[in-house]
UniProtKB/TrEMBL annotation:
SUPFAM superfamilies: Glyoxalase/Bleomycin resistance protein/Dihydroxybiphenyl dioxygenase. It comes from Amycolatopsis thermoflava. InterPro entries: Fosfomycin_Res_Enzymes, Glyas_Bleomycin-R_OHBP_Dase, Glyas_Fos-R_dOase_dom, Glyoxalase_1_CS, VOC_core. This is Glyoxalase/bleomycin resistance protein/dioxygenase superfamily protein. The keyword Metal-binding applies. Coiled coil: none annotated.
Length: 153
């Protein structure tokens, strides 16, 4: 069996299917501060490229008819790391204004005794998302005991 020889791997952009681009773009722009870098298409096939500081982060493709079913194989959740727990809390406030659905109430650590943690929620199409910081969540209780907080939501 042959194995590819790759010296370094990192995630590039992530592409998500959405049902309504006119709803998804403002959601991601407001929550994450993404700017539209490019967009196009026609009535049947629309898309938008979103980024931060000139770097492409997320592509949205309007080609779905139903929300994302968490029970299907595929994307479990998409996680975004930010610089501080204060930034996580600021995003949480925006999400509450938008009426987002949260898995847990407020910031939670990634596991019992861990300092990293964040918020877990869904976008308007039911795609599971996380915004976390590497530290600052150690004072909150872990909601799942020994299981990773991000594992089963």
């Amino acid at each position: 069996m042959t194995t590819a020889t790759i010296s370094a791997v990192q995630t590039g952009h992530v592409g998500l299917n959405v049902t309504d681009l006119d709803r998804a773009v403002p959601f991601y722009a407001r929550v994450f501060g993404f700017q539209v870098q490019a967009e196009g298409g026609n009535d049947e096939r629309r898309w938008a490229f979103l980024g931060h500081d000139g770097r492409l982060v997320l592509t949205l493709w309007q080609q779905s008819e139903t929300p994302f079913p968490a029970s299907s194989a595929g994307l479990h959740h998409l996680s975004f790391q930010v610089g501080s727990i204060d930034e996580v809390r600021a995003a949480e406030a925006v999400l509450r204004e938008l009426g987002a659905e949260f898995r847990y109430d407020g910031v939670v650590p990634h596991g019992e005794g861990m300092s990293s943690g964040g918020i877990f929620f869904t976008d308007p199409d039911g795609i599971r998302l996380e915004i976390y910081a590497p530290s600052g969540a150690e004072t909150a209780a872990a909601p799942s005991g020994e299981a990773p907080t991000c594992g089963f939501f």
